[in-house]
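The instructor's notes for this session suggest beginning with a concrete chain rather than abstract definitions. Hand out the sequence below and ask the class to guess, before any prediction is shown, which regions might be ordered.
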Amino acid sequence: MISGIAIIGLLYWYGQRLRIMPVPTLPAARRKALAMMPRDAKLVVELGAGWGGMTRRIRKALPNATVIAYERSLIPWAVSRVSGPVHRGDLFAADLTNADVVFCYLSPWHMARLAPKFAAELKNGASVISVAFPLPDFAPDAADDPVYLYRYRK
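After discussion, reveal the predicted structure:
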């Protein structure tokens, strides 16, 4: 009982601190997001891996790609590591310069803070795939509710 309360307390504390709770990507959104990912991607970066479900599916769908996932919340990070390496770190500090695809299921606050990072770091032709929350002030190149695809051109 005490450990359950501690786990819930940690989840709540990290949720408040990071401004987001770990929520799994729904199956329909996963399928749509995976369908938008270029099959020739060499590097996929997942920002906010949560429990690791999407990380596993990306690795399975793109077996020739390197998938680098980031999660900062302690308990989801520990669970997500079952599916392979997941970095425990700040997604705002992630190096995106070589990414072919960036996948995220974050909040409007996170997307607004990430928009300038994407513009500054992503290479020509890189894609950002976001579930549920669009990038503010950017028109998606494609959308299949609730998934948005952005292609960066420099």
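Then share the key points. Helices lie at 2-18, 27-36, 53-61, 74-80, 108-121. The chain has one domain: 23-151.
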